[in-house]
């Protein structure tokens, strides 16, 4: 079996992402592909993306596991945590040992540890000088990321930003806000559809998402379209 170097894996990941950024691509599918690649490339346990809506409130739009989704959702609801600070400051926030973080972000600390996460690295998503969200890497081991991992993580966050806001649309704040709101609205529908699938088919939320995503790809639909079909009961997954 051929073992790929990290450089080769990074190159392959960017080729894969580039292939998805053509035509009328599904931005949420791109973002989920991106967080999955982050886990593979950076030896993370889980990864997720939070985006700010036009009012500045963060929302979870992509995650690789239900555990990381719950931790990120708690930060979003509480308005406090490394990912929130990353967005607010536009700077990287790292917690190499969550358990040893003292009184910093007590709610986040309790939630992260309860899900088995021991360290987190939050990377800002920026459009020029404006932060629009954060890419978050969770690990079950303590320790900071290496400079190489940090650089790759920032590159992945930049790709996530590009996938949401194509260069030609970044000229006006109103257009930026419209693009962000569209992505956030789609995520809400997807969460509702996951709940429907989980209830009807007696599967967990991770499996429900996999079925929804597979249906979208099989039908050449966006995940939003598949979610609408599930919610309206036009299809059952």
From TrEMBL:
Domain of life from the UniProt record: Bacteria
Membrane-crossing residue ranges in chain numbering: none
Coiled-coil parts of chain: none
Xref: PROSITE patterns: ANTAR
Alphabetic keyword roster: Kinase, Transcription, Transcription regulation, Transferase
Pfam family, one: GAF_2
InterPro entries registered for this protein in UniProt: ANTAR, CheY-like_superfamily, GAF, GAF-like_dom_sf, GAF_ANTAR, WH-like_DNA-bd_sf
One MF term in the entry's GO annotations: kinase activity
Name of the protein in question: ANTAR domain-containing protein
């Amino acid at each position: 079996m051929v073992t790929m170097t990290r450089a080769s894996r990074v190159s392959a990941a960017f080729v894969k992402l580039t292939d998805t950024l053509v035509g009328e691509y599904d931005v949420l599918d791109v973002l989920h592909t991106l967080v999955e690649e982050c886990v593979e490339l950076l030896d993370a346990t889980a990864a997720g993306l939070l985006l700010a809506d036009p009012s500045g409130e963060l929302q979870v739009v992509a995650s690789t596991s239900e555990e990381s989704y719950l931790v990120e959702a708690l930060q979003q609801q509480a308005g406090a945590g490394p990912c929130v600070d990353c967005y607010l400051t536009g700077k990287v926030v790292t917690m190499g040992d969550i358990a040893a973080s003292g009184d910093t972000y007590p709610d986040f600390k309790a939630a992260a540890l309860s899900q088995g996460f021991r360290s987190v690295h939050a990377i800002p998503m920026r459009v020029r000088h404006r932060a629009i969200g954060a890419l978050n890497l969770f690990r079950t081991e303590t320790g900071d990321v290496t400079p190489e991992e940090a650089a790759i993580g920032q590159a992945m966050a930049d790709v996530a930003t590009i996938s949401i806001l194509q260069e030609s649309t970044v000229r006006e704040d109103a257009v930026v806000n419209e693009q962000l709101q569209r992505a956030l609205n789609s995520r809400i529908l997807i969460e509702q559809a996951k709940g429907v699938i989980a209830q009807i088919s007696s599967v967990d939320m991770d499996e429900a998402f996999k079925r929804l995503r597979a249906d979208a790809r099989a039908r050449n639909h966006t995940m939003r379209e598949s979610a609408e079909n599930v919610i309206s009961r036009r299809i059952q997954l």
